[in-house]
Amino acid sequence: MNPAVDEAIAIDEVALGDINRCDLDAVDPGGKGLNASRVVARLGRRTVALGFVGGVTGELVRARLDAEGVPHAFDDVPGLTRINVMVLERRLARRTRRYLPGPRVSAADLERLRARLADVRAGETVIVAGSVPPGVAPTVYGDGGRAARASDRR
Fold first, then answer.
1. Which residues constitute the domain of residue 19?
2. What is the number of structural domains in the chain?
3. Is 17 helix (H, G, I), strand (E, B) or coil?
4. Which of 5, 71, 89, 148 is packed most tightly, with the most Cβ within 10 A?
5. Using one digit for the tens of pLDDT, what is the confidence trace for 41-63?
6. Which CATH number is 46's domain given?
7. CA nearest neighbour of 138 among 149, 126, 130
8. β-strand 94-99 against 82-89: which pairing, if any?
């Protein structure tokens, strides 16, 4: 629901309160649900990545998935798709992760996603994972699971 641009950088050691010159290791689309869809596509199985993206970072996510051949059907929302930064300090062999919250999702945005999920056919698998974007209740995954059980769509 809340894809990201994952940026991995490396530095010998972070100097807090100072300028830190880093090496860029990678910039990739990310987020737990999106990564699951990427793996399913690499295994040659049918998948569609869903969620909310916005701005130039959302365009980057779409472009990178297109280049990988991962189908997607994201909903556009105002704001920017979040950026996650992983910093590797080589000297200390320490990794620090910094995750941004992502764009705000409205009730109408969430309803559009629910409508898409209502089209899932019996026997298909839906993976919902990862952080919940701002504006969405933290109970959204549990609520969706209960609704699927109640409709006999497990």
1. 4-150
2. 1
3. coil
4. 5
5. 999 999 999 999 999 999 999 99
6. 3.40.1190.20
7. 130
8. antiparallel
